[in-house]
Each structure stands twice: as structure tokens, then as C-alpha cells.
Amino acid sequence: MYSVAKRIDFCYGHRLLDYDGVCRHLHGHNAVAEIEVDAAALDGRNMVVDFRDIKRVVKAWLDEHLDHKMILRQDDPMVPMLQSLGEPVFLIDSNPTAERLARLIFETCRQLQLPVVCVTLWETPTSWASYRA
Question: What is the rounded distance in angstroms from the CA atom of residue 11 to the CA atom of residue 18?
């Protein structure tokens, strides 16, 4: 089995509701999404997938939906205020943890027809979460 991965940087803010720690406050991260794809055989170019194709597809989605957005749980009381101020928000149905964001990116890659097997989201240079098939 062949495997390749592409790392894509983006920035986001979030907070965790019903959480007793510093992450209950609004804060931001310089994140890295690592997209791993695999194949049993190489294509005609001797590649699993061209790194440029992974970057083009995933970075476009990240830039549009998550980059420089406040990612919040849909019932977060901050949502109406941020929206009234014209701040960019992205809403999800659960706390926007690194684990949940890794799964969101994984599922999006699948919808975008990438043969993804694992997404690792580096929330900080020393902390990451992965979601795999």
C-alpha cells in the first residue's frame, strides 16, 4: 500500500462550552491539517495523488470555511453577537475540539472525492488529534 500526506496551514478561533479549563474562553490557533491518502497501486504518473491536487482541493475548502473563522458550537451564546458584528463564524453541532475538526476535514475530503485514510489536525506544534477510516 502506498501513502502520501500533505500538510496545510490555517488559522481559526474557537471555544469549548461545558468545559472546565482555559479553552472555555475564546482563543485562536495556528493549525496544520495533515491529509493522508493511500492507494494499492500508483497512477500513470507513478503517484498516489499529486500533492498539488490535495492542496488545491483541501486548501480551497479550508480557506472558504475554516480559515480565520470563529468555529463554534451552533448553540453557543456568542454566535448572535458575533454575527451581528459581521464576524466570520462556522457553526458545528458539537464542541469544536481538535478531534471533531479532524473528523470534519476527513468527511469533507471524502465528499471531495479524495481517497483520504487519515486526517491529523495539529492544534499546536505539540498537540494533535486524528480521525481515520
Answer: 23
Residues 6+ apart with CB under 8 A from 51: 4, 6
Collapsed DSSP state (helix, strand, coil) of residue 22:
helix
Residues in the chain: 133
* CA–CA distance, 52 with 4 (Å, rounded to integer): 12
How do the pLDDT tens digits run along the chain, 133 residues long?
Answer: 999 999 999 999 999 999 999 999 999 999 999 999 999 999 999 999 999 999 999 999 999 999 999 999 999 999 999 999 999 999 999 999 999 999 999 999 999 999 999 999 999 999 999 999 8
Q: Domains of the chain, with CATH numbers?
A: 2-120 (3.30.479.10)
pTM score of the predicted model: 0.95
How far is it, in rounded angstroms, from Cα 90 to Cα 73?
Answer: 9
